[in-house]
Amino acid sequence: MEDDLRQEAEERLGSHVGPFRLVTLLGVGGMGGVYAADDGVGNRVAIKVLHKSVASLNNVRARFEDELRLASRIRHPGVVQIHGGGVSEAGDAYLVMELLEGQNLDAVVESRGGTLPAEEVLAVAAHTLTALGAAHAAGVVHRDLKPENLFLTRTGALKVLDFGVARLTSEREQSAKRTRTGVLMGTPAFMAPEQARGRWSEVDERTDLWAVGAIMFTALAGRPVHLGETLHELLVTASLRPAPSLARVMQAPMSLVRVVDKALAFDKH
To answer: Is position 3 annotated as part of the catalytic site?
Structure first.
């Protein structure tokens, strides 16, 4: 399946989306491919194009439209800017975004042997929280924060990516009614207990803070918060068991342990 999606994405190279020609394939995910593109007169952007195989699914198309609508509400240098979107002449749904150069946090951690020093993790967390503050002030909860969605540019800036699972806090009740119990939305290794249980009416800004704590824990300790051999095991563990203290898995200053442990508290407070 992954090979088929990559092939589909690669076949679009050289084609046009509006005035932009798709020049380089930057990455392929479950929803679509991301390309570097230019308009021939010096303007370069990133364009995310939905896979044809998923574009017909109403929930996927709705999430894609949500990303455009919600991310456009947030004007902050720490959030990737969405310039617009639509449907190409070939019938492909797309988003036009600012083009970033650098690596996501997941790739950075992997290139550094699986962990980062505490001062770098704290810097990432501080920048992420500042961007989240702007998102939350705009009424948007991200709901899928993870290392792959934090991008470190070559200039040292951090950008929060992918608001495809985000939701307006004012729509939380309606969202909970639309979202069937048990539907997986998010990434299990970075899900707070209420999210792992599928209790969407309980998901709020604090759910994002739990994910930031999980990102810090993982980057510091070189392992996820919860361990499980299967997706089901991981979800059950995240739903029922408190996160282990950072002090149990590595040596760290108690001031740092308290910050991470508080972010990963089992009960919301």
So the answer is: no
Rounded CA gap, 88 and 56, in Å?
A: 15
Which residue in 104, 99, 79, 81 sits closest to 24, CA to CA?
99
Give the pLDDT score at 242. 96
DSSP, res 211: H
Q: Is 246:257 a contact under the CB 8 Å cutoff?
A: yes
Check if the beta carbon of residue 92 is closer than 8 Å to that of residue 49.
yes
Nearest-10 crossing angle of helices 118-137, 205-221: 170
Q: What average pLDDT score do residues 101-130 get? A: 97
Which residue, among 254, 168, 154, 158, has the nearest Cα to 215 in the 3D structure?
A: 158
Residues 126, 150: Cα–Cα separation, whole Å: 12
Helix (H, G, I), strand (E, B) or coil at 255: helix
Burial of residue 113, with CB atoms counted within 10 A of its CB: 0-12 exposed, 13-18 middle, 19 or more buried: exposed
> DSSP 3-state assignment of 83?
strand
Please provide residue 42's backbone torsions phi and psi, each rounded to the nearest 5 degrees: 100, -5
Non-local (6+) Cβ contacts of 229 within 8 A are: none
pLDDT tens-digit readout, 176-221: 444 444 444 568 899 999 999 988 889 999 999 999 999 999 999 9
In this predicted structure, what is the pLDDT of residue 91? Answer: 82
From 66, 144, 162, 261, active-site residue: 144
The one-letter code for the residue type at 108 is V
Read off the tokens for 148. 């792959």
